[in-house]
Amino acid sequence: MTTATPPLLxxxxxxxxxxxxxxxxRVDLVVEPGEMVGLIGPNGAGKTTLFNCxxxxxxxxxxxxxxxxxxxxxxPTHRRARLGIARTFQRMELFSGMSVLDHLIVAxxxxxxxxxxxxxxxxxxxxxxxxxxxxxxxxxxLGLQAxxxxxxxxxxxxxxxxxxxxxxxxxxxxxxxLDEPSSGLDRxxxxxxxxxxxxxxxxxxxxxxxxxxxxxxxxxxxERLHVLDYGTVIASGPTREVLDDPVVRxxxxxxxx
Length: 257
Ligand code: ATP
Hints:
By secondary structure, the chain is of the alpha/beta class. It has 10 helices and 10 strands. Strands 6-7-8-3-9-10 form a 6-stranded mixed sheet, sandwiched between helices.
C-alpha cells in the first residue's frame, strides 16, 4: 500500500484577531512541493498577518499549520527554520562594511551539526571551503559574480534584494516565503528577481509563496494564486484565471492588471 505524500504546506482555518479586528477569518492555504504560489490582496487584506502566522512570528487564534505532514502551529521560527522554512523581509537585513560574498557565507547553514560557519570565521578567519564554494555558486545564480568583494552598501537596491534572496537560499530551504521582493525596484530589476526565482525552483526545487503587489511579476512567476480581501480568501486557482476574474479585478479597482 502506498501512502500519499502530504502537501508541503497545509494551513487550515487560520484565524487571527487584533483587538476586535478580525485580520484573518478561517483562511486555508495548501502548497504542494515545487509550486510557486502567489498571495495578493488590497492593503490591509491580511497578507502580512497570514505570512506571520505561517512563518511563526504570530500564533493564530484558530486553525492549524502543517509542514510536510508535521504540525508546526506552535513552533517558534528557529525550529521552523531547521525544518526548511525560510522567509525574506521587505526591509532588508544587510550589514554595512561586509562584502557581498561574506553576506552569503554567513547565511549558510552548517552542512554537519558539528560544523559552525560562524565559529570557523571567528577562530580561523575563513569559512570552510565547501561553504565558500556554495556561496560562489549562489553568486553565479544571482548574476552577481562581479560584485563578490564589493561592500554591500555599494550595491543598488535591486542588487541588495538579490543578495537578500541569496541569503535565504543559502539556508537551503524547502519552502521560502517572499514578502514583496519587487518593492521599490524598477522593471529591469524586478525581471532579474523573477529570473532568479525561476532558476532557484528549476535548479534547486525550492517551493515559493510570494506576497506581491506587482501583478506582472505574479503573472510571470506563479502558477497558482490566492486573493485575500478583508481577511478571507475571495478567489484562488490558476494565476491567469484568477487575475481575469471580475471579482478580483473589482477588489483591485484602479490597479492595472
Ligand atoms: P499591506 O498590503 O498594506 O501590507 P496586508 O494585506 O499585509 O496589508 P495586514 O498588515 O496583514 O494586511 O493587516 C490586516 C489587518 O490587521 C489590518 O486591518 C491591520 O490594520 C490589522 N493589523 C495588522 N497587524 C496588526 C497589529 N499588530 N495590531 C493591530 N492590528 C493589526
